[in-house]
Amino acid sequence: MQLLRKITILFIILFSFTAKASFVLIPMEAEGQQNHLKAYGITYWALEKNYKVNWLLNYRGGSFLFPDADEIRKECQIRGVTFEILSDGQTSTILEEISSPSQNQETVILEKAPKIAVYTPKGKKPWDDAVTMVLTYAEIPYTEIYDEEVLSDQLILYDWLHLHHEDFTGQYGKFFAAYRNAPWYIEQKKEAEALATKLGYSKVSEEKRAVAIKIRDYVIGGGFMFAMCSATDSFDIALSAEGVDICEPMFDGDESDANYQSKIDFTNTFAFKDFMLERNPMMYEFSDIDTTLEHGKGAMAMENDYFSLMEYSAKWDPIPTMLCQNHTTLVKGFMGQTTAFDASKVKSNVLVMGECKINGEARYIHGTKGKGMFTFYGGHDPEDYQHRVGDAPTVLDLHPNSPGYRLILNNVLFPAARKKKQKT
Question: What are the 10-residue block averages of pLDDT along the chain, 424 residues in total?
């Protein structure tokens, strides 16, 4: 009897040891996660703590798998992130299932927290930019930089660069018609001119183009660049117009070059081709890349405005698969100065990862340039359909599961991945 009791106790001890939790899973499907956005912040925090994290592509909405640790559990509880405790056996079963050739899933190892820079003017309010807002909400640290830092080659300090809602053409956002007498417009123009002079340029357009070229070189050298709204098309336009004056007198004090459209060089751009520049300074538009003017008509009314995420092979094309991880393939649309891209203007070597076929729009695109990569995302704020100057900031506590904001955070984590060569 005593021997039997000892055997029973030994069996319980052995069973408890083998059943001990060894991993923490942060599920990312629609029903299983109470705060998708802060889950990315937990992942970044764990990378800063030197934990290796597995990103389980296409498994339960793109879940994250961590080694079990008390501080990880505690951090999830503090931040309100749903998590599950897995045993070694459960984890092995999941990883084996993911590795099966029959499953469009893959495990990607995240190794190091990327150093993040946000290109934004000094003193800019954080709610003026969706990326700044979501990084703050997810508690992911970033450094603000602007023209002085870019032109003094400080980009090499960072793995990931976000371009603020910006105008790299030197036309002050094409706000002239509506806001030329507004105090904030007058002040911003004055500050931009003073900065250009300080940096040794006679015009803001020349200084902004120099910044765009530095950013181009950063990407070619291996950096990752993410841009939203007008920073997307204005960046490419600035590159295409190197050595060409496309600004009217109210922007730079002299006439634009005659017939400047014929001097545009599309080989210099990252993503766009064959576009026509908007010559009218009174039009709130840079070119016909953007579809904002056509937006909102008929099928594209707000209640019908969605775009679809493309599906890729997780094992063969892990890069676009990572960038498209979400708990839904249908994402609510949103407007901006640059809302979406005319699909016919997107270069053939650029991946369209999110599209609205009804309107011939590309909303979310990705490409490579040299050793680096870039992602362009149309629209200004994924949870503010028609963001206007002076609108109140979005409160992300009301949108903790936003699919549109998840796409931004996919890009933030992407540089942390152990690189695998794309096969298609």
Answer: 44 41 94 97 98 97 98 98 97 97 97 95 69 95 96 97 90 87 90 95 96 98 96 97 93 92 97 95 91 59 85 96 97 90 97 93 97 95 77 88 97 85 47
CA–CA distance, 405 with 412 (Å, rounded to integer): 11
Q: Which CA distances in Å does 83 have to 56, 103, 193, 264?
A: 14, 23, 51, 52
Give me the residue label for tokens 């509880």. 77
CB contact set of 48 (below 8 Å; sequence gap of 6+): 113
H or E stretch at 252: helix 249-252
Whether the full predicted model's pTM is greater than 0.85, yes or no, is: yes
Residue ranges and CATH numbers for the domains of the chain are: 2-110 (3.30.70.790), 116-295+335-393 (3.40.50)
Which amino acid belongs to residue 42? I
Residue 215: its H or E element? helix 204-220
Tell me the DSSP string of 298-334: GGGSGGG-EEEEP---TTT-HHHHHHT--S-SEEE--
